[in-house]
Amino acid sequence: MTNGKAIEVRNLTKVYPSKDAPIVALEDASFEVYEQEFISLVGHSGCGKTTIMKIIAGLLDKTRGEVLVNGAPVTGPKSSTGIVFQTPVLFQWRSVIDNVLLPVEILGLSKEEYHPKALELLELTGLTEFKDKYPRELSGGMQQRASISRALVHDPSLLLLDEPFGALDAMTRGEMNMELQRIWSEKKKTSLLITHSIPEAVFLADRVLVMTPRPGRITDIIKIGLPRPRTPEMRLSAEFNDCVRQVGKTIGLQYL
Amino acid sequence: MVERFKELGTITFSLVLFTLLWEVSVWLLSVSEFLLPAPSKIFWTIIEKFFPLMQNCLVTFRETIYGFLMGLVLGVISAIMIVYSRLLQNLLYPLILVAQIVPKVAIAPLLLIWVGYGEMSKVLIAFLVSWFPIIVTTVQGMRMVQPEMLDLVKSLQASDWQIFAKVRLPNALPHFFGGLKIAITLAVIGAIIGEFVGGNTGLGYLVMVANYEVNTPFMFAALVVLSILGLVLYGVLVLLEMWLIPWSIDEDEQELTGFGM
């Protein structure tokens, strides 16, 4: 990787105050993400994955340590970030296109100027003919695609995905993985994907960060050497399964 | 759509059947008119007394609407204050709750002493019964925002005003309309209570007069007009809702809020 560092996390610690004993959600986490890199962050529920993401997004204060995004310390939310949540979080009262344009509106940018951009993103996610529909008229997968379009519309340099496909059925999930890879290879946004699906993490990432819980720690960083673009058939290859096994072992799964 | 028509047909059928049964049984059992007048008799009474009925209906309509609008404006303002200030919430909620718990029928005579026997006392009672559901539903709607929605707009550095205008307010609209539908039906009842307690106009007053005169057909005529008034006001709100927030139309939910009281 010859690119510069998009995210630098050093000795990041987050302690949630609690009546009995303070909860250490995150202890001394250190890693970096290079520009245009795709990183997966994988681990059990409650191991601090979302905490890391929220701190990087500027939505949560850290207890100790250092977080730099594009070389600058994070002090609060920045418009250079696009977020996709586990649920689509679409605004029921807005049409799909208006949902995609929401960041533009909030940032006070010109809606006319960004309208073609929004249309282009809907094209990319295959939602062109649904642009004037309300979210409730869309399927779960389509809603999540709309929310990915929304995360990209203001051209953020960093895309944060917090278990974006966790609520989808397995088949839709596989399709969405392909879709996300396509979007990423076209837009080349630095991406941080949080997931608890190991195959999903491996399939999409350049590197996989493995986390273990209580206290939340990054135990390993595994480089995925699979060639791109990755195809569904690759999921059956020995190389892919070696990676999956390696990640699984680090997490502590015995059966792999 | 076909389903919809079928439903409408069933509803009409049940109403017609009910009216017919009523008519026939009154006729067969020769029930005295002052006990239970036949639907046809009520109908003719409405035609006969059309002018006074409409005149008094207009009075009740005015009292209801003014009270309702007062409840709407003050209800929304109180709701916003409650959502945005812990202090105001603690100051306002007990007062609002007490105002709601005290039976309006019981304080109606008091209001008459304070503001007189005119329309104002009825407007005030209509207001008192209608603002509570509006406050409760609006507060609920503004608070029940998905946390991720707030995270999303905060990650874009949204201002407090943007969070209010683009998230909390639209999010509250379906709840708010639920509250309005409850409030409008209560407002009619409030105005009638006021007219019962004292006054010399309005449909409630007509019911009282007819009662004194043991003029049961006229009493029923006033009741029918009153029901139609309530239904029309409710219907207007349903139409407004469909027009203003087409994205939230959920037939089942609508029925629930409709029969919520």
How are the secondary structure elements laid out?
The complex is a heterodimer of chains A (256) and B (261).
Chain A lengths: L4 E12 L6 E12 L3 E5 L6 H9 L6 E6 L2 E2 L7 E4 L11 H5 L1 H5 L4 H14 L15 H13 L5 E5 L7 H18 L2 E6 L2 H7 L2 E6 L4 E7 L14 H14 L5
Parallel strand pairs in A: 3-8, 3-9, 6-7, 7-8
Antiparallel strand pairs in A: 1-2, 1-4, 4-5, 9-10
Chain B lengths: L1 H27 L10 H10 L1 H35 L1 H16 L2 H12 L3 H25 L3 H9 L4 H38 L5 H10 L3 H29 L6 H8 L3
Helix pairs in contact in B: 2-10, 3-4, 3-6, 3-8, 3-9, 3-10, 5-6, 5-8, 6-8, 8-9, 8-10, 9-10
Fold and architecture overview:
- The complex is a heterodimer of chains A (256) and B (261).
- In chain A, the strands form 2 sheets. Chain A has a 6-stranded mixed β-sheet with strand order 6-7-8-3-9-10, with helices on both faces.
- Chain A has helices spanning 49-57, 96-100, 102-106, 111-124, 140-152, 170-187, 198-204, 238-251; strands at residues 5-16, 23-34, 38-42, 64-69, 72-73, 81-84, 158-162, 190-195, 207-212, 217-223.
- The two termini of chain A are 30 Å apart.
- Chain A is built from 8 helices and 10 strands.
- Chain B is flat.
- Mean pLDDT of chain B is 89; it is low at 251-261.
- Chain B is mainly α and 261 residues long.
- Chain B contains 11 helices and no strands.
- In chain B, 84% of the residues lie in helices and 0% in strands.
- The interface between A and B is medium-sized, with 26 and 21 residues.
